[in-house]
Every structure is written in structure tokens, then in C-alpha cells.
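Let's practice the habit of predicting before peeking. Look at the sequence and jot down your guess about where helices and strands might fall. Then scroll down.
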Amino acid sequence: MARLSRFILVFPLVFLFLASDVSFGATLPKDGRVAVVMRGSGVLGRADVAGAASAIIRELSKRGYPVVDKDRLDAMERSEAARLALEGDVEAIMALGRKYGVRYYVRSVADGHRPVVNEFGLYTATVTISIQAYRASDGRYLFADSTVGKEVGYTSEEAASKALMVAAEKVAVALAEGEVVSKPQPKSGGKTYTLSVSGLAGLVGAESFRKDLQAMTGVDSAYLKSGLGMASLEVVFQGTVDQLAGALLASFSGLVVEGKTPGSLKLRMGK
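Done guessing? Here is the structure:
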């Protein structure tokens, strides 16, 4: 227990555990319980993350989601599988599914960027919450999505807390209404390529890479399949694989092409 407590102090962690009665578009079926895990990083403290988690719980409750009793929730938080699942361990995700009746597991990271002072002497803060969803029965990756909250406050702490709450509210709506990123469909003339990218800073870094990729000239759409370990993305690009590689090298400083096939690129992001 002491070991887990130390882990929580470094990475603020909150579990939301509820019975599934929601469809994420056509991605997450309505056939089982959902467990949601939140970890905070950057300028966010444990209390900030706990408050955001409570806001998500309240919103889901308003929408008719029954929350699992506190005793079961506490037991799940104390388990070693919970710590490993937070790092994306597939076996741990499956273990949580078997022991606690979890059908779908959603891993989320709340990243608080350092607030900046605006021209009025107030602080502006931005918080990004990124999520990944898995089917707990077999550990299959389902989808990824992210939301952003931006708010102003009289102090940096107030601004960050308010921005986190805005992002959390968006997450709750996305969980309830299925507003998730959908897999891209190739446009006329576009071709789908698979990118495997190492050296990114976890899920947050992978999502940031996806957004920059989406903004590149010639890219119709970019989809993050997995942000754990080596990130995997699908991109629809108006050109050949060689042209895509050239565009990537021109757009991302420090990027190295380590491998290439007609339909894929293996990339490494340098320091």
C-alpha cells in the first residue's frame, strides 16, 4: 500500500467506475461496465485531478449512469493491476476486467501546461485531457481522443484549475454522447499510410504529433491508433510514400526515417 501511495503522489490518479449505458458512436458498445482512470501531470496537483474526476462523475450521474459502490472502487484503486493498467499493460487491463467486472477500460491523462501572464496581468492556462479506450476482455485497443480546456484566472493555480474543469466537462460529454475521433476515410486520390513513431512523450506527445501531422499540406486526415510505447497512426496523404517522408522531415525537426514500405513508415523522433 505504501508503494502505491508513493506512486499516486507523483502521478495523481483517480478512478471513475460506472455501469455502461452509453455508446461512443459505433466504437464502444453498451454491453458492459466502463472503468475510467485519470492521471495528472504538469502543473496539476492531486486535488485538481480529484476535483475534475468528481465533476465527470457528477455529469455522468446526471445522465443516468449508476456509479459502483465506494468499497469496490477503493479495492480497485489499491490493486497492483490498477497501477500497471495505468501504464497501458494489457494483461493488467484484462485482470481488472476479470476481477471487477470491467468490460471497457478508458485511460486518461490530464496535462496542465504552465500558465502564462496575458496583457491584462491575468493568468491564462491550458489543459489537455487525452483518453484511450480498451476492451478489457482481451485488451484490444479501441480508440483515442482528446479535449482541451483554456481559462483565465487571477493566479496560475486558479487558471489551471478552471481549465482542467472545462476539459473534464468536455470529457464527460464525450463519454456520454460519443464525440470521439473517428477513423479517417480516404478522399479521392488520397492513400492511407501507417506510421510507427518512437521517441514521443507518451499519449500526450502522440496526440500533439497527430495534430501537427493533420495540419501538414497534402494530409487529408490523421488518426491515432495507439499512443503507448511506439505510437501508431494512420494518415491519408495526397502523394507517394516518398513524398510523405519528405513532407514529414520538412515539418518535424529531429525526425528520422528508420524504415519504409510502399504503405508504411517507421519513424523516430530525436531529442
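How did you do? Residues 156-177 form the longest helix (22 residues).
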